TrEMBL record:
This is Amino acid transporter transmembrane domain-containing protein. It is found in: Cell membrane. Keywords: Amino-acid transport, Cell membrane, Membrane, Symport, Transmembrane, Transmembrane helix, Transport. InterPro entries: AA_transpt_TM.
Amino acid sequence: MTHHTKFNPNYISICNPASSLSLIFTSLFLSWKRVRGSRRGDFCKEMGENGVVASKLCYPAAAMEVVAAELGHTAGSKLYDDDGRLKRTGTMWTASAHIITAVIGSGVLSLGWAIAQLGWVAGPAVMLLFSFVTYYTSALLADCYRSGDESTGKRNYTYMDAVNANLSGIKVQVCGFLQYANIVGVAIGYTIAASISMLAIKRANCFHVEGHGDPCNISSTPYMIIFGVAEIFFSQIPDFDQISWLSILAAVMSFTYSTIGLGLGVVQVVANGGVKGSLTGISIGMVTPMDKVWRSLQAFGDIAFAYSYSLILIEIQDTIRAPPPSESRVMRRATVVSVAVTTLFYMLCGCTGYAAFGDAAPGNLLTGFGFYEPFWLLDVANAAIVVHLVGAYQVYCQPLFAFVEKWAQQRWPKSWYITKDIDVPLSLSGGGGGGGRCYKLNLFRLTWRSAFVVATTVVSMLLPFFNDVVGFLGAVGFWPLTVYFPVEMYIVQKRIPRWSTRWVCLQLLSLACLAITVASAAGSIAGILSDLKVYKPFATTY
């Protein structure tokens, strides 16, 4: 009887057909960028029955070593976790990098404006309040990563998996809609912020050449298109575990532009001969009493947006290596590090921006042109913002990409267009029978992710209001995703009795944050309506 190796119908290789017969090349998926070919025959396995050899499979020795090194295990150890998935390699530091990439985003640049609306007392106090709430609810959510025992319980791979495991009914559907709607909103917000930073580079050079009196009006539309094209390319990275390098680069960039903004603020304070601002924020007279109320509420939304990352916390936690220690313990440490670092930066950047400009603090510290010189330093800072937002866009959108692709595969499991991967050679060194570098191209992934980026880019062109959009996104996403669902899941997970002291405290926290969310959303909507009165789609310049 002849035995034939089972072929996976969802995988087509045009680089090395024999590779599709081997499980080792599945694990090579995470390290394709480092495998440049190797000699064959080092690891061989004979296939057959009853002593009759029907075929012989040989695996590249160098490739085996690369996989072992990449995953942090010896050649003899298992390459898979206990649930059959590839071993995770993340640590507290990589998780912190992911969080910092997601948290220290465009929101940091609006904090000077936010504190200007609230003043020296309420501004920093609100920032500390949001940092505490974010840390506490993130710790609650981290405990829901596994159902049951924190080390051996069933893993929940996404935020929605955790909701499904702990809640039921309409709550699951509402959570799914809010999470993915918020991701779409964040993608739009990041596209707006990136385009404004690219535009700011052009304007800074214009001001340097033409003088500060020249308006240097430029449309942001071409820059949104440029950012969209870049995101179409990076969106083809298949999954979260392969973008650690992008997150680390983006985190470095976030520190770069935050430090530059901080330094320029300090220089401006020195040049002013003192600190500007007041205890109660922007004065009545510069704005009407009603505008003061709306602006203060919008400031709450801006600060909430600056701390928002809970909707991708479970996905980040799913990159942490298997216990011991448990993923929840590692994630709590990563949350402490990242929230502490971001709060320090937020305090420094926000307070320095307000101290430098007082009531006139711009909505975006590095693009509102409170600073004109040195123009080259502004260019560096804004370029760093763009690089950071390229990475942050992917960190946020990967869960949505994965959700839609998983749903499509379950809905149409036999569709060639959706399920088949095609190996595309990335170099010519592999030859016809070698082990050259290949990229797994999936046609559905290519079209769906590209269409998503195009759609968010078009919407960004229609609503290029940085501060108002940021405030609205922060308000809408803060209470349900950062507070309500983590609190409800934690109560179920830990079986906290109804009306117990702990249950009442958690519910009071949730209700207080709901009130903040409603008020902040109202303030941001008022701002957007005001902007729309003078805005002309695709025509307004800055």
